[in-house]
Amino acid sequence: MADQFAKELDCDVWVPDYFAGRPIMPLTKMKSIEHANLGKLSGFDWIPFIFFDILPNIPALIASRPSVSNARVASFIKTIREEKNYQKIGCVGYCFGGSVAANIGTTDIVQSVAIFHPSPFTVDFAKTIKAAAFWGSAE
After folding, report:
1. Which residues pair with 90 in a beta bridge?
2. pLDDT by residue (tens digit) across 121-136?
3. Separation of alpha carbons 72 and 118, rounded Å
């Protein structure tokens, strides 16, 4: 996706590592909603799901909580701004990244944000966004 953005927009596109090399869930454990059958799990089926899929990943969740990820991304943006001497930087985020983009938008380090299906936020929080913002959300 980043490569396509770079090609279509004819600009540099960077992808920060929100999770510092440790995703909150290993790729092998991720399933699409239609394959997860979470709504169809019996009481007994929830036990291995919780003990083998959720609990082992709690340290990664804590290590990449929003306040930590926001700081990582802010540091990343400041670094590339200095190293590449960029005058303007925008931030695009979807879901967890959408809330990161919204939070980064409250600072002065980016000039624009595109926020798609972000984690929960309040209208009062949205009013604190300083950067020009595009919101993409389903009904």
Report:
1. 112
2. 899 999 999 999 999 9
3. 18
Q: How far apart are CA 107 and CA 74, in angstroms?
A: 9
CA gap 28, 20 in Å, rounded: 18
Q: In whole angstroms, what is the distance from residue 75 CA to residue 134 CA?
A: 23
Identify whether the C-beta of residue 132 lies closer than 8 Å to the C-beta of residue 101: no
Helices marked H in the chain: 2-9, 33-36, 43-48, 58-63, 66-84, 96-105, 123-126
**pTM for the model:** 0.80
Closest CA to 120 of 134, 106, 108, 103: 103
Q: What is the pLDDT of residues 84-124, one digit of tens each?
A: 999 999 999 998 899 999 999 999 999 999 999 888 889 99
**How many C-beta atoms lie closer than 10 Å to residue 131's C-beta?**
20
CA distances from 23 to 2, 27, 46, 55, 83 (A): 19, 8, 22, 14, 26
| 21 membership: H or E segment, kind and range | none
